[in-house]
Amino acid sequence: MRQEFATVVNTTISVSITIEASGEAIFAVLADPAKHAAIDGTGWVGSPLDRQALTASGQIFRMAMYHASHPNGNYEMANRVEVFDPPHAISWMPGHDSGDGLLFGGWIWRYDLTALGPSETEVTLTYDWSAVPEELRHEGQFPPFPTDHLDSSLTRLAELVGGLSGGTS
Fold it and tell me: What is the pLDDT of residues 23-65, one digit of tens each?
């Protein structure tokens, strides 16, 4: 695995690495909610509440979460798949059940995969909060974590697909 770059631009953070694995192998991990806790760089993601694999844009999948600063500590997130383009891109927008239906906050997790060879893939993870309403941005900090959480997530992803070939550069 080779670290490429980490950038923060206004309302997005992007981090890229090269993983020694095919895009198909990496995409399969990203499309499996049961693997999300293992690749989460924040430590907030728990087990999936919906166990089916992600298969299409618009699909909703729910995850158990924990954050010490959350009013309840333990909580649930409902995620709507925004982009589903195997093996090139996948993204989802987290939200929650408001009691009157699902309410989405406007931030998106997106993975873009670019084949560099048959068993080498550049993976870019982007956290985008550009669609978060202004009043919600004032309630909390965006992003709610340091950039190194994205680095950690990509390192965990590489380890999970067996594509960790040494340190970052």
Answer: 999 999 999 988 887 888 677 776 777 778 999 999 998 777 7
Q: How many domains does the chain have?
A: 1
d(CA 54, CA 50): 10
CATH number at residue 51: 3.30.530.20
Whether residue 169 is contained in a domain is answered as no
Rounded Cα distance, 112 and 16, in Å: 9
Which residues lie across from 93 on neighbouring strands? 80
Q: Is residue 14 part of a domain?
A: no
pLDDT tens-digit readout, 87-120: 999 999 988 777 777 777 788 999 999 999 999 9
What is the domain range of residue 77? 23-122+130-160
**What is the distance between the alpha carbons of residues 112 and 92, in angstroms, rounded to a whole number?**
12
- How far is the C-alpha of 85 from the C-alpha of 77, rounded, in Å? 23
Mark residue 5 as left, alpha or beta (left: phi above 0; alpha: psi -120 to 50; beta: remaining). beta
User: What pTM was computed for the model?
Assistant: 0.84
